[in-house]
Amino acid sequence: MLKLHNDNPKHAFHTISTYNYLSEAIKRTIAEKDIDLIVMGTQGASGTKGVIFGSNTVKAMEKIRECSVMAIPKNVKFSIPKEIVFPTNFKATFKRRKLSYLIEIAKMFESTVRVLYVSKKHDLTELQEINKQLLQDIMEPIKYNFHNLTENDVSEGITSFVESRNSDMIAFINHKHFFFNSVFSKPLVKEIGYKAIVPILALH
Question: Which interval of the chain is the signal sequence (predicted)?
Fold first, then answer.
């Protein structure tokens, strides 16, 4: 249960009670309160072993498109995110406003963003190369590196990359349903396991 007692004058807590589906209640609150970021704590589907992000959290990351959503797994304590993994297929054009939270977090904590491209072949199309260059321009104010992984399964590639580097966070742009379903659906969450649970930031 959230303890509303707080000694930090920069923070204030307000309780909202409503009778509605969670995603619809969140959307309504975003509109009424002009919310910038949704943060959700989660312990998985009723504490089921191997399931880190429950259905409510997955649905929120998928369906809430009015602002960004951050999911925090159970038992994760705050630590400075020195390394943030940003998986992308370079197929969609990047927008500065969509990456504003990622850039702001990286600046605040002097984080390094690891741009991860997972594919069976590393050759990029002309459009992908253009988008990659645009991403470089957008990330110019922060520290970043590009990484390629030859992997048939995208989710397995991301999981192994995060685990091997002990990364602190995953951030991705939710391009409607395509990339979300192929990368951050429940199968990936189950594969992450309990040793590499990290916060996930879904950017919109």
Answer: none
pLDDT digits (tens, 9 = 90+) for 147-196: 999 887 787 788 889 889 989 999 988 766 545 555 555 545 444 433 34
Domains defined for the chain, CATH in brackets: 22-203 (3.40.50.12370)
| Rama region for 45: left / alpha / beta (φ>0; ψ in -120 to 50; rest) | beta
The residues near 130 (Cβ < 8 Å, ≥ 6 apart) are none
pLDDT tens-place string over residues 112-149:
999 999 888 778 999 999 999 999 999 999 999 999 99
The span from the CA of 19 to the CA of 5, in Å, is 25
C-alpha span between 28 and 15 (Å, rounded): 15
Angle between helices 22-33 and 55-63 (to 10 degrees): 50
Q: DSSP labels for the chain?
A: --------TT---------S-HHHHHHHHHHHHT--EEEEEE--STT-TT--S-HHHHHHHHH--SSEEEEEETTPPP----EEEEE--S-S---TGGGHHHHHHHHHHTPEEEEEEEES--PPPHHHHHHHHHHHHHTTTSEEEEEEEE-S-HHHHHHHHHHHHT-SEEEEE--TTHHHHHHSSHHHHHHH-SSS---EEEE-
